[in-house]
């Protein structure tokens, strides 16, 4: 997050100032990568680059504060993801990960991994095994750091639905990660 | 599907909405989470961890793209800047303004109005605390006598987070003096706005700052900040996602059409000279 300087940084970035743009980029790129890692890991970097093209094109027309900007960027990101899925479906390739990491197996012992120094990647891998909407809602809340209403707008759903999605997603993760603990609680 | 033989009537995986919210925002550490969710809390924290060097390694390429896309020739950039609503750099005027607003707009009251460029600066300061109300040309560009009302859309935090029902003293027309509560109250509302807007946006960063500590002092403890802000900003601090700049859906976020109704009386004042006097 950039904070109180955001309006200045945005203004400067929209005018082409590289340092300002760099600040926006450093704040958002990791989040974009993680978002795409859950839904389309093989092309995460490409989709992030495409997203930035869209951002740069629209940058000097954007009006709003920092959370609004982040929501706007992720709206673009989501469009890139959906476009990619459509193209991939037309190509009818085999590795069509509508959801999930095809090249990243989930940890063998999820509970142990979670309790230890879990890496971001394995955390994302766990989330990627959830139903797509649950995974996306959680990623937008946690990685993009957006509130329920903004996530709802991005996903084209009602806020109540987003709440249910995240609730269910967390529960599913707990079931998977904590199953051993629950059984051991007898 | 229950797997809780120990307590058949209690679902260890049950979660209320507020706990879900606190898990998602990282407010609950693994130690603080419900026992069945300790691993989940750790997982969420890992998802929100600070960037890795690999994730940041593409910056040079991104800047190269920016150079290609930005129109060559700084003249174009200059033009763009001129045609955009001026978002001036925060400077001394802004600091003074912020101070003035925080103390009840005394300076504004003293001068009678805030000049237009400083109004724009006000938007620039206040915008991060509020929703995406744009620094678009004000509905009444030539309306000096109502500085605090013009500041209204910009002090959009309360306006957008509570549909205008949140007096902060800066949306009341004319009455620079009627800062509700106190200057301290206004400050803390602003801090709460920033806190609520910021807490959902900073994965991995420890939120230690003098602002946070000030809020903690006001609230009686860092763990009481959420409750304190909820009282201060009842509409902007709903546990179910209130830590965002609220009413976003429906396109409100990108710009309130005009000043909130509270600036009505101000409008009448401005129109007085034109009024036929009937």
In the predicted model, the low-confidence regions of chain A spanning at least 5 consecutive residues are 101-105, 112-117
Instruction: Indicate the overall shape of chain A.
Output: globular
Quick one: how many beta strands of chain B? 0
Helix content of chain A: over 70%
* CA-based shape of chain B: flat
Class from helix and strand fractions of chain B: mainly alpha
Average per-residue pLDDT of chain A, rounded, comes to: 87
What gyration radius of chain A follows from the Cα positions, in whole Å?
18 Å
> Order of SSEs of chain A, N→C?
HHHHHHHHH
CATH superfamily of chain A: RNA polymerase sigma factor, region 2, helix turn helix motif
- What's the CATH class label of chain A? Mainly Alpha
**SS strand fraction of chain A:** under 5%
| CATH second-level architecture of chain A | Orthogonal Bundle
Q: Summarize the amount of helix of chain B as a percent range.
A: 40-55%
Distance between the termini of chain B: 74 Å
Oligomer: heterodimer
Mean pLDDT of chain B, to the nearest integer, reads 60
CATH fold type of chain A: Rna Polymerase Sigma Factor, Chain: A
Query: Main interface pair?
Result: A-B, 82 and 82 residues
- Which consecutive residue ranges of chain B, at least 5 long each, have pLDDT under 50? 73-83, 105-110, 130-181, 202-206, 237-244, 246-278
Largest sheet data of chain B: none
């Amino acid at each position: 997050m950039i904070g109180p300087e955001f309006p200045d940084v945005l203004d400067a970035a929209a005018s082409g100032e590289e340092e300002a743009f760099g600040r926006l980029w450093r704040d958002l790129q990791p989040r974009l990568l993680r978002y795409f890692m859950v839904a389309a890991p093989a092309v995460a970097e490409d989709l992030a680059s495409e997203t930035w093209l869209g951002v740069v094109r629209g940058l000097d027309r954007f009006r709003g504060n920092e959370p609004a900007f982040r929501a706007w960027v992720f709206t673009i990101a989501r469009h890139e993801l959906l476009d990619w899925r459509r193209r991939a479906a037309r190509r009818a390739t085999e590795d069509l990960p509508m959801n999930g990491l095809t090249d990243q197996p989930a940890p063998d012992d999820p509970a142990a991994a979670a309790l230890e120094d879990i890496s971001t990647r394995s955390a994302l891998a766990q989330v990627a095994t959830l139903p797509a909407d649950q995974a996306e809602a959680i990623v937008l809340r946690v990685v993009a750091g957006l509130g329920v209403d903004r996530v709802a707008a991005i996903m084209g759903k009602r806020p109540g639905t987003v709440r249910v999605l995240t609730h269910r997603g967390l529960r599913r993760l707990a079931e998977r990660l904590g199953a051993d603990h629950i059984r051991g609680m007898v | 599907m229950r797997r809780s033989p120990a307590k058949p009537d209690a679902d260890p995986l049950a979660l209320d909405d507020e706990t879900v919210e606190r898990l998602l925002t990282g407010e609950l550490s693994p130690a603080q989470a419900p026992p069945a969710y300790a691993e989940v809390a750790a997982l969420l924290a890992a998802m929100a961890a600070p960037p890795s060097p690999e994730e940041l390694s593409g910056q040079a390429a991104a800047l190269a793209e920016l150079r290609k896309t930005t129109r060559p020739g700084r003249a174009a950039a200059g033009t763009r800047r001129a045609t955009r609503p001026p978002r001036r750099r925060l400077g001394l005027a802004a600091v003074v303004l912020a101070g003035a607003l925080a103390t009840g707009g005394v300076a504004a009251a003293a001068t009678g109005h805030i000049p237009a460029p400083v109004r724009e600066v006000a938007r620039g300061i206040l915008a991060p605390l509020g929703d995406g109300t744009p620094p678009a040309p004000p509905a009444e560009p030539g309306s000096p006598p109502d500085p605090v009302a013009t500041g209204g859309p910009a002090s959009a935090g309360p306006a957008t987070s509570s549909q205008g029902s949140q007096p902060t003293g800066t949306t009341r027309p004319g009455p620079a003096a009627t800062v509700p509560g106190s200057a301290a109250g206004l400050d803390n509302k602003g801090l709460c706005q920033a806190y609520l807007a910021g807490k959902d946006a900073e994965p991995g960063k420890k939120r230690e700052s003098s602002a946070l500590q000030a809020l903690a002092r006001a609230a009686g403890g860092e763990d009481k900040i959420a409750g304190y802000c909820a009282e201060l900003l009842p509409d902007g601090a709903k546990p179910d996602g209130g830590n965002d700049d609220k009413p976003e859906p429906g396109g409100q976020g990108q710009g309130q059409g005009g000043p909130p109704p509270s600036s009505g009386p101000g409008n009448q004042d401005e129109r007085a000279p034109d009024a036929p006097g009937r």
